[in-house]
Amino acid sequence: MRKKELNENAMVLVRKILGTIKDAEMGQRGYLLTGRSKYILPYTKALRIISGFQYSLTSLIKAHFDNRSIQTNARLNSLITAKLIELKKTIDLKDQNKNIQVLQLINSDMGENDMNAIRKMCNDMLDVFYVNVRQEDQKVSETLAMTEISISIFSVLVIIVITIMRVKLYNRRRKNIRLFEELALQNSKLITQQQELKGLSIDFSARNAELEHFTHIISHDLRGPLSNMISLIQIMEEDGLADETDPVFKMLKNASLGLFRKLDDLIILLRQRQGGILLKETISLSQLLGEVKISHKMEIERSGTIIEADFIEADELLFVKIYMQSILQNLISNAIKYRDPLRTNCIILKTYQEGDTLRLNITDNGRGIDMEKYGNEMFGLFKTFHTGLDSHGIGLYLVKKQVVEMNGNITVQSETGKGTTFSITVPT
User: Sign (positive/negative) of CA torsion 239, 242, 243, 247?
Assistant: First the structure.
């Protein structure tokens, strides 16, 4: 580091000497050309300071550098002395108004040759000092690098050994503790799960039995008499025993039919809740829609409903057939039931293939639903959204349940007075 500092100091002094000589020459040129004293100031300043730079450089080189550098420095001092004599001579001639002799001296190239020699000598010295600095830097860098590598390797090895030993000890201790804890926990969980399973099994059996009994009551004890009542009403109509315009008779007939349909919906719901495995199959939406239209032919014709379908993107999907049939029946029946009497009722079904999912949109132009009021209750059991109509509140609940069981999703968009769109997405 000391050698590097000495060479850097020598470089600084050489640059200062070269710059000072250039300033002196610039001041001489300016004075010769203009004859004005202010342009000679760089020259006079250079004369004051250059001897100090020369002395510092000479002392530094004699004390710390080899003979070759000392000899080079001596030649540089000789060239500087010759250059300063040349500069002073031309200035003196200028002061004596001997312009012709000044011009002759300048044209002799003596001063330019001296300056070129000084510049070359300074550059050579700078090259030597720079090489020395670079060599010292390289030595220091190599020494530091080797030291850092050695220290780093040793430190890493020590850290690795200590870490490995501590990790092994910790892992062995934790492993033993964890094994005992896991055994105890697993044993406790097994006991708890066995008790829970036993309780669930008993509860499930009881609930299933209750559900079957309730289904039987609805199917036979209630549905039978109600079916007989509807048959009697039909017989009275056919035999002319009842006045069809009588409000009381009409209310009795509508109430009986509504209750009959409600019982049918409840029976479907209860049977589905009883469990059992329903297998998926490849179904055709266009074919299934045709079957639904046939079964609801009278409703469609009486209401003047127009049903349009576009299944170009996707017609077939893997689904439980009775589920999709129930979904189409419920949504189409609702669209007919809640139609707007002021315009022709129109139902549009369209499918979209979206990656690995199929989306089925069922859109109507009926009365619509107030989403702000009923949006959170849309698929609730026994939830109705229109008064004065034969609404059971089961249809949409069944639709939602059937779609979810098929790993699908259903959403609804509706606006009062404009219509409703149900969007069903299922994996394909």
Answer: negative
